[in-house]
Amino acid sequence: KDVLPLIPYPAIGGYTEDNWTALLNDCPLYAIPDIKTPADFLIKVGGDSMNPKYQEGDLLACKMIQEILFFQWGKTYVLDTSQGVMVKNIYEDADNKENILLVSENKDKYPPFAIPRSDIRKIALVVGSIRIRMCE
Fold first, then answer.
1. How confident is the model at residue 1 (pLDDT cuts 50, 70, 90)?
2. What's the longest Cα–Cα distance across the chain?
3. Which of 9, 44, 60, 122 could make an SS bond with 80 (beta carbons 3.0 to 4.6 A apart)?
4. What's this model's pTM, rounded to 2 decimal places?
């Protein structure tokens, strides 16, 4: 794609299957050079749970997963759940196959936790990132 929609971070959480396309169509579009892997949208990182890999304000290029047949364990995903939008590394929950384990990069501050697979409303694989630094 030549341009990608930038989803406003807090807005993604409340969108359903029916109006997901409308959300993407209403977002501002950005031209991102040198993204080799196809991406469907951009989203800003909020908070520090994924430091140092991703910092607050980083833009993540994401590829929507339409049907969850399997997870790439250890990869970073953006998940829309009943608890809101999260950027986490996903691992298998060895204790309960109905759950997945969500792991932050900043493990000292944010311990891993499990959520039911059924709580995932939307999921996208992070395929790239952009860090913008402003000079003072």
1. low
2. 49
3. 122
4. 0.85
Give the whole-angstrom CA distance, residue 79 versus residue 13. Answer: 9
- As a whole number of angstroms, the distance between CA 45 and CA 63 comes to 15
User: Quick one: DSSP state of residue 11?
Assistant: G
Segment 9-33 shows an average pLDDT of: 61
Distance CA(93)–CA(98), nearest Å, equals 8
CA dihedral of residues 70, 75, 79, 84 (deg, nearest 10): 140
- In this structure, the strands spanning 41-44 and 3-7 are parallel
State the CB neighbour count (10 A cutoff) for residue 80.
Answer: 20
What CA–CA distances, in Å, run from 5 to 23, 40, 44, 121, 128? 9, 8, 11, 19, 14
CA–CA distance, 33 with 3 (Å, rounded to integer):
9
Contact predicate 122/12, CB 8 Å: yes
